[in-house]
Amino acid sequence: STIRKSIKRLQNIEKMESDGTFEKITKKERLFLTREKDKLRKVLDGVETMSKVPGALFIVDIKKESIAVKEALRLNIPIFAIVDTNCDPDPIDYIIPANDDASRAIEIITKVIADAVIEGNAKSKELRAQESAEKERERKTSEEEFADPEKKDSKGKVRRVRLENKDDKKGRPRTDRRDRPNTRPERKSEEKNEVKEEVKSEPKQESKEESSN
Question: Is the pTM of this model over 0.70?
Fold first, then answer.
């Protein structure tokens, strides 16, 4: 983005100034880079060190800061802005109708916005502290439950925690299949063979009796 490129350019100029590159260039080039650095510093002061996209953007003159408005729209950043009669309010999410040339009006509005930001940051820190404290209490409670299997809860009921030892399961001896008792029923095929043998044996006996007679 345009702002990111400008921040990178400012960082490069400051690096050239600190590592001694300015001493190796001409006086005219040094003067040009110094002026460029001052101009970028004036525009980007306070934005350079930001590591993430801001949650909202407040603009005093949307006509003058048209590039910032386009960047915010592209990144879906909510825009709070003072909108004068000579400006287009369509791209602005939260419009503050006022004269963007009146210094007194700008001072009052910016003070209210700044106080709201400070108050919101304080509440956000407080909520994060409460959440971290709640997580710490839950962690300690879970550790106590594992340390003491029988523990009373807030209603006075005994809460049992089942602790299973995996080593006991691993240490159980395995039984061989050959050592297990055979509980299977006899096969039906064996019964059929026995019936066939009985049926075949009877005619032979009758034939012997006839021959003897």
Answer: no
